[in-house]
Amino acid sequence: MLQVLRLMLSLFILCLLSIVIATHIGNRPQERDAIAHFFDMADDCDIAPCFLGIVPNQSSKVDVYRLLNASPLVDSVDPLQDDIGESRLVIPWNGTQPNFMTRNGYVTFSADFARLIVLDPDLTLGEMLLALGEPSQIHIMREWVSLRYYDSQLVVESALDCDGAIFYSQVQVIYRPRLLQSPTNTINQGNILDAC
């Protein structure tokens, strides 16, 4: 009898905790809208993918420097050399960016053109799903999940934490057009919850 009461109490606490978390995340429509707007800043571009006016495979290094230096969100930019010989330009935020962007992003280059844009927001997989909605495609690869949004041509990647915290895993947002050109690429397409 005591075990049954403990089990019921545990289930009640788990349900209550789930409701509180869902309410906390779900009742912030302004924040969800701000997240969606930040990652879909298509105002600066006519084509996707695009972030702060930078279009992978089209924007030259000179264009990227100019666009980042002109952005009200970005501090001065410094080029770095990547380990594999590919140049990388760090996107250092200046303090006016949204509060979920605490870590610097970067742009990589190939043949003097932007190849991809990588952002590391302080957001979870659940928060990104709530903000961006259902992805066009979900790819599950061993310990990783990749949410692909074809309209904005962005990819949200996260480690799969199957210990009950799948939707609380930190994400990385990648603007990478070549990856999204073929919607027939269906490597382990499925449901995130089915992966665990």
Descriptive notes:
This protein has 196 residues and is α+β, with helices and mostly antiparallel strands. The protein contains four helices and eight strands; from the N terminus they run H-H-H-E-E-E-E-H-E-E-E-E. Strands 1-2-3-4-8-7-6-5 form an eight-stranded antiparallel β-sheet, covered by helices on one side. Helix 2 crosses helix 4. It starts with a helix and ends in a 21-residue tail after the last strand. The relative contact order is 0.14.
Helix segment count?
4
Helix fraction bin: 25-40%
How far the N terminus sits from the C terminus, by CA atoms, comes to 32 Å
The average pLDDT is 76
What is the overall silhouette?
A: elongated
Summing up helix and strand content along with how strands pair, one would put the structural category as alpha+beta
- Supply Rg: 19 Å
Written as H for each helix and E for each strand, in order along the chain, the element string is HHHEEEEHEEEE
Profile the largest sheet: 8 strands, antiparallel
The percentage of residues in β strands lies in 15-25%
Question: Which labels suit this protein?
Answer:
196 residues, alpha+beta, 8-stranded antiparallel β-sheet, 4 helices, 28% helix
Topology record:
Layout: H1 2-26, H2 29-39, H3 61-70, E1 79-81, E2 87-91, E3 105-110, E4 113-119, H4 125-132, E5 137-141, E6 144-149, E7 154-159, E8 171-175
Antiparallel strand pairs: 1-2, 2-3, 3-4, 4-8, 5-6, 6-7, 7-8
